[in-house]
Amino acid sequence: MRFIHAADLHIDSPLRGLGRYAGAPVERLRNATRRALVQLVDLALREQVHFVLLAGDLYDRDWPDFHTGLFFREQMVRLVRAGTAVFVVQGNHDAQGVISRQLPLPEQVKVFGSRAAETVLLRELGVALHGRSFPDRAVDEDFVPNYPEPVPGVFNIGLLHTSLTGAAGHDTYAPTSLPVLRAKGYDYWALGHVHARQVVSEAAPRVVFPGNLQGRHANETGAKGCELVTVHGGAVDAVFVPLDVVRWHQCTVPLDGIDQLGAATQRVARALADAAEEGAGGDRLHAMRIHLVGQTALQAEEARQPGTLAAMVHAAAQDVPGAEVWIEQVRLAVSSPVDRARIAQGQDAVAELVRLVDELAADPARLADWSARMLGDVLHKLPAEVLAGQAGDLPVLADPESLRGLLMEAEATLLARLNANPA
Fold first, then answer.
1. How far apart are CA 60 and CA 93, in angstroms?
2. Fewer CB near the last or first residue (10 Å), C or N of the chain?
3. From 3.40.50.1460, 3.10.20.80, 3.40.50.300, 3.60.21.10, which CATH number describes the 2-242 domain?
């Protein structure tokens, strides 16, 4: 018996703020979730799996129109025409109380009900599938104790959209624990909700979050895909298959000691090539957020001509062989190679600046208060999503570490300019 376990497709997930990126491959990014699902169906047909399990969050939110639902249905038709059944539980993003529009699915696509857990027995395959969908977006109860008892003599699989005991960056829904899952007596738990792949338990039972099918932004990095599972005589052989068409990366490149743009370009190009090599193969776009760090004389060049280092990174991306690279953002945490301790001992305005920065950086509460006073006329004009860090490419102004980073960047720029233009 062979099956695919996938979750968190988030088809047509909105990608906000792309208009801010000049030259962004907008359509390719917007279509990435769809193309990943097509590749999932292609894999199922190529491997001739018996069924596909989808553990929730097929969609990201209610459909603005029927196009999203029709696309998903089209892919399901491809599967059922080849004799491949599909079993679905709905999660918090596509719960029955969230998706208002409905389309009838093919009979071979089974969506588990939301009132109680139920069982589907595939006697010819020797497998029993147990699952329950979310009735509404917020579910705070543990579904597992009320799942049906395992069917004797067959391979029992539980489908569940859950946060388990909690996961960073994810809301707590249908909470449960590994001991509770084990106590149910199933052979495999097909989980969804957590977007980073995680094998919670290798065996007895095997418990897996496959992660989402396609990364949607720079915080969902690395390979994304599904589990291809073969069961023979009760033994489970599972492999992860990457299906993402856009691979997100975050690369930190140290520039310590580099004082020429040409040398910096070469170092960045090597880092980009190494990152792209990890996800090589197929028609894949590599979307990269680059962090330049360290002490470098190039900070003075950046101070004289803001944007110099970002342009250098974009130039380096053009030199990566055999891979398509898009630079989503360049973040700077570089400073000039100056002796801050010596400067701080002086009696001039520059020394006073360095001492003030040290005092503010050491006291988050004072830094927040000082920032609010200094930036008051600006902050009240910014949208709430910018202040909360939901704009994607901007720092989180409510976060002490982000404020500290901005403070240090401002100091480095001032010191570089003062050094370049001595009185």
1. 5
2. C
3. 3.60.21.10
